[in-house]
Predict the 3D structure of the following.
Amino acid sequence: MRLHESIETALVILPDKRWHSRAHGKVTPHTGIEVATTPHKPKVVAAVTSVMDIFGVKDARVELSFTGFIPVSRGLGSSTTDMISALRCVGHALDLRIGAAEIARICHEVEGATDPTMFSTPEKLLFASRKSTTLRRFSGVLPDFVVATFDASETMGAVETEEVVFDDAAHHVQRFENAVRKYEKALKTRNTDAPFPAFTRAQPAMPSTFGAYLANVGVSVALIGRQVAAMERYFDSRPLGACAGYGTSIPIDPEITAHLLGYTQGPLGSIAAVADRSAASLVLGQLAELSTLYSRVAADLQFWSSGAVGLVYFPDNLVGQSSIMPQKRNAFVLENIKARCASIIAAHMESLVSMKSAPYTNTIEVSSEAISGFSAAVEGYRGIATLVDWHLDGAVPQVDIARQVMRDGVAFREAYNSVRTKMQMPSASRSVGESSQAVEPAEFGAGPSAVQTRRICNRLGEYREKLSSTLEKVRGRVDKSAANLRKEVEELLR
């Protein structure tokens, strides 16, 4: 995968169970270091010698043999895989703790480039093989890519992965694309169904799932979205003809003017047409509600992804790094979301304060200042919604940590039943004469099922589309009206 002509080739490795390498080793005392492989593999010898030197192993003979098969000289990482299996075998025999990053460094040192197969999930890494560095981690849906195939038969020569792409039958490519789609779906389902603690007062309280949290956020967005969609009808009347608020003695028909400008009706009342800005204020209010919700979601994600908690992991493109403390992965975009939300809430408050105590008639406080932040708030909301979507899509629940948190804690119902039993308090459902006995903790679920979660998330997507469509219509109607009005005025002045 070449990101750009000026950037070197990077790899995304897709594992294939048909091809593998397994090393079998024997370590015996020996004067000095000696490494023997069957068959002879010079790169394996160099890698094992390097790791023994790094860990200070002085006198040992290592004999290695290999089973499994990977076609050589096909760009399939055969030499890298042999080195990885050998290093892990030697590390196990000599009780050396060799991490994936150290193995990658040694493999790169031996052959000048390496595949990322030493990592547990190489298919989720965009790996710069000639620098042995990870450019990006994929947390959810894979980005766009090009499928390059190869011929693994003995008649083919070596594959120059940087320059040559071999054609293959269409059905092979289709099978690969189907596999990628299944992979994407599995990632989404895994993240949705991943166990995740439910928090109250910043403390883990109940076992739940990450999907349950997302689904309930979706419910809140949908409820607010319905109200925003209902605002559209308030923008469907045209105030032209109200004049300064009391109409005119000239015999005009405001309905005709409204229809010519694309509205369904004229002003409902001449004074209300110039004195009332409740429609714009109501939309600002709903956007403020959505912004408040998004800021709370951002706060949750920031808390869960912090180094002290570690329940959620964000890919590199959603975090920044401290210049003086490089160990930190700062989710600074979440801070940006919370700050932007404040400006939209402020726009709503500005509209209310501007109209407060203003006369119910044509006045600058209402006609201009009260809605001055409307367009900026709509644009600001779109940016916030996009950033929140990126984080919800990119968030990867750390399942092992989540399970540990839920194992370490005590569920509310279990704690309640335990305390009630020790105090020998009879349950409200038992009769007075019934003896007190220990009650097993009730089975409790983890929120909505996976099917319910996906259904709610799908509905959330529909409401988001409706909300976006409504805002587009409102802005389009305003822009269209302004253009038509200018055109009418220009014709009258001719």
In short: Confidence is low (pLDDT under 50) at residues 1-7, 154-173, 424-448.
